[in-house]
C-alpha cells in the first residue's frame, strides 16, 4: 500500500509539473501540445471547457496567421514575377504599363539608370540637372566624398522622370531590374 501511495504521489507531482510547464509554454508562445492534453487539463482543474476553448481559439489564430503569411509570400512572389515580366514585355512595345514611375529617394543607382535611359552622357546629364559633371559621376560611382543629391536636385530628377516618354520609363525600369547594369 505504501508503494502505491508513493507512486500516486509521484504521478501527481509529475502531472502538476507537466501541467505547469505546459501552461507556461502556452503563455510564452511555445505551446506544442496537442488538443488531448488540454482536454485532460481542463477536466483535471474543472475549468468547465475554458482551457479547451482557449486552446482551440489559439490554434485557429495560429492557423489563420500561417495562412495569411503564406498568402502574403505568394502574392509578393507573384507581384515580383509579374512586375519583371510586365517590364520586359512592355519594353519591346515602348509601353511600360506602369502608369506613373516614382523614386522614393534618388541614389547613384537610380540616377545612373535615368541617365542611361535618357541616352545622355554624364556631362549632358549634369548640365541638365544643373550640377557639376564630377558630382553626377560621384553619385553613380558611389563616391563617399560626393554628397547625395539635394532636395532641389531630387525634385529635378523627379520631374525629368515624370516628363519622360514611355520608352525612357521602360528603359529606366529595365536598367534598374538588370543586376550590375553598369558593369
Overall description:
The chain is mostly helical. It is built from eight helices and no strands. The termini are far apart. α3 (50-93) crosses α8.
List the helices and strands and how they pair.
Layout: H1 2-27, H2 35-44, H3 50-93, H4 108-118, H5 122-129, H6 133-141, H7 151-163, H8 166-177
DSSP helical segment count: 8
Give unreliable regions as ranges. 84-95
Structural class by helix and strand composition: mainly alpha
The overall pLDDT, averaged over residues, is 77
**What general outline do the C-alpha atoms trace?**
rod-shaped
The helix fraction, in percent, is over 70%
Number of strands: 0
Termini separation comes to 85 Å
Rg from Cα:
31 Å
Measured by DSSP, the beta-strand proportion falls in under 5%
Biggest beta-sheet profile? none
Sketch the topology as an H/E string, one letter per element: HHHHHHHH
Amino acid at each position: 500500500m505504501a508503494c502505491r501511495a508513493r507512486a500516486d504521489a509521484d504521478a501527481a507531482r509529475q502531472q502538476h509539473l507537466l501541467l505547469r510547464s505546459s501552461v507556461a509554454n502556452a503563455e510564452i508562445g511555445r505551446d506544442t501540445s496537442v488538443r488531448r492534453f488540454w482536454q485532460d487539463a481542463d477536466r483535471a482543474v474543472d475549468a468547465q471547457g475554458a482551457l479547451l476553448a482557449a486552446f482551440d481559439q489559439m490554434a485557429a489564430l495560429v492557423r489563420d496567421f500561417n495562412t495569411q503569411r503564406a498568402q502574403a509570400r505568394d502574392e509578393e512572389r507573384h507581384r515580383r514575377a509579374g512586375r519583371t515580366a510586365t517590364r520586359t514585355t512592355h519594353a519591346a512595345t515602348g509601353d511600360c504599363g506602369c502608369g506613373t514611375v516614382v523614386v522614393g529617394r534618388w541614389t547613384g543607382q537610380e540616377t545612373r539608370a535615368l541617365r542611361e535611359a535618357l541616352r545622355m552622357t554624364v556631362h549632358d546629364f549634369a548640365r541638365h540637372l544643373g550640377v557639376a559633371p564630377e558630382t553626377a559621376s560621384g553619385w553613380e560611382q558611389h563616391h563617399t566624398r560626393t554628397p547625395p543629391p539635394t532636395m532641389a536636385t531630387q525634385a529635378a530628377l523627379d520631374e525629368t522622370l515624370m516628363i519622360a516618354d514611355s520608352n525612357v520609363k521602360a528603359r529606366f525600369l529595365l536598367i534598374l531590374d538588370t543586376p550590375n547594369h553598369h558593369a
